[in-house]
Amino acid sequence: MPSGLTIRTFGDRINLHVHLHFLATEGGVDEAGIFHKIPRIDDVRLAEIFAREVLSFLVGKELLSPEWAERILSWPHTGFNVHSLVRAKTKPEAERVGKYMIRPVLSLDRLSFLEQEGKVGYRWGLIWSLSPG
User: Does the pLDDT at position 133 exceed 80?
Assistant: First the structure.
């Protein structure tokens, strides 16, 4: 169902943070050209399904033992997470999401030269403005 997928290996802090971004439709078109929206699946359930599929794949390739797969699934925080609240309802919103998915590791806007220290600085996370409205 995904109509777009990127594999990301970094987080906002240029740290190792392996994750996937999917861009998916909320339904499909039948033979008559009519769009049918599918029911939304709970993120927790999606994360559980995805975790089981990934771990099953690793067990099948003998990269992980079945015992470790079950152990991981028993953890309160398995490392698998789904966030599906972002919705692109317009073309500009879809373009924004697509650009976010393919963004580079470094943002030149966040780099600066710290002249007194002779180092390069990198700002990460949200930059909050203290100016009113």
Answer: no
Let me know if residue 124 belongs to a domain: no
Neighbours of 78 (CB within 10 A): 17
- Is residue 21, in this structure, part of any structural domain at all? yes
Distance CA 55, CA 75 (A): 13
Is residue 64 within a helix (H) or strand (E), and if so which, with residue range? none
* Beta-bridge partner residues of 112: 121
The residue type at 37:
K
Written as six digits, the tokens of 80 are 């698998």
CA torsion, ordered 72, 7, 127, 120, to nearest 10 deg: 110
The boundaries of the domain holding residue 53 are 2-106
Number of domains in the chain: 1
In a domain, 123, yes or no: no
Give the separation between CA 31 and CA 27, rounded to whole angstroms: 14
The pLDDT tens digits for 14-25 are 888 888 888 888
Euclidean distance between the first and final Cα of the chain, in Å? 41
pTM above 0.90, yes or no: no
